[in-house]
Design goal:
Largest sheet: 6 strands, mixed
Radius of gyration: 19 Å
Order of helices and strands: HEEEEEEEEEEEEEEEEEE
Length: 239
């Protein structure tokens, strides 16, 4: 337990030190930073941050991460991340288009300084990125959840007329993540095809209460490499 605590505190200190080294600014109550400020299209932007203990009460609330993505991106305008007991929070998202991405963190009315991540075309020919979003996040039984996303190539251009498959995994004990989990048996739900600009959409009915996790896969072909979306976790509730 002491080792875990020491590691967590050390990582939090590293986030602060790295941020302050870049900005030459005094410590802030809310800090967000990225593992790298220069990434390629198709790579993940890995965000890390820390909340000052003075802002955290008995139970931490969610951090709102505000996203300013370049034109053409299907990234959300904001997402939520739950800080741990030490005030640290994490999130990662695919860089689906090139350009300057901006990120801010908001916690209990206090904003972090904005950081910029420069996304450039990938040097790997045929590399693809698959985005996914779903709404509503807290559906009721009987609702339909609408999912949408986009398949893009190494330059950020949409890849048209390609088949994608979507799968689900129902569990109240697994919250979902961007990481693959080889122990999970995913259930195939259906297929869709990207349109002329690489976008796709589909709907999934909520038939019972409980957690459901959804992901989308592109198998790849002779021109483009396979890719996998992040996992979207939903919680169905009775009406």
């Amino acid at each position: 337990m002491c080792l875990v605590l020491l590691c967590t505190v050390t990582i939090g200190d590293e986030i602060r030190e790295k941020y302050n080294d870049i900005t030459n600014d005094s410590p802030n109550q809310v800090i967000i930073d990225s593992d790298s400020h220069d990434v390629e299209i198709g790579d993940e932007i890995i965000l890390k941050g820390i909340i000052d203990k003075s802002l955290i009460g008995g139970a931490p609330s969610d951090v709102v991460i505000l996203i300013s993505a370049p034109e053409g991106s299907l990234a959300e305008t904001f997402i939520l991340s739950s800080p741990d007991q030490h005030g640290m929070f994490f999130y990662k998202l695919p860089a689906d288009v090139g350009g300057m991405w901006g990120f801010e963190a908001l916690y209990n009315g206090v904003y972090s300084p904005k950081i910029i991540v420069d996304v450039v075309p990938s040097t790997k020919t045929g590399k693809t990125t698959l985005t996914l979003s779903g709404w509503p996040a807290y559906p009721r039984v009987g609702d339909e959840v609408v999912f949408k996303g986009r398949l893009t190539d190494s330059s950020g251009k949409g890849v048209p007329n390609r088949e994608i498959g979507y799968q689900s995994y129902s569990s109240d004990n697994w919250s979902g993540s961007n990481d693959s989990n080889s122990d999970i048996e995913w259930d195939p739900l259906g297929f869709d095809q990207t349109d002329e600009i690489g976008e796709y959409n589909f709907k999934i009915p909520v038939i019972q209460e409980g957690g459901i996790n959804v992901r989308v896969l592109f198998p790849g072909d002779g021109q483009y490499s396979p890719s996998e979306s992040k996992v979207i976790s939903l919680m169905g509730k009775n009406a």
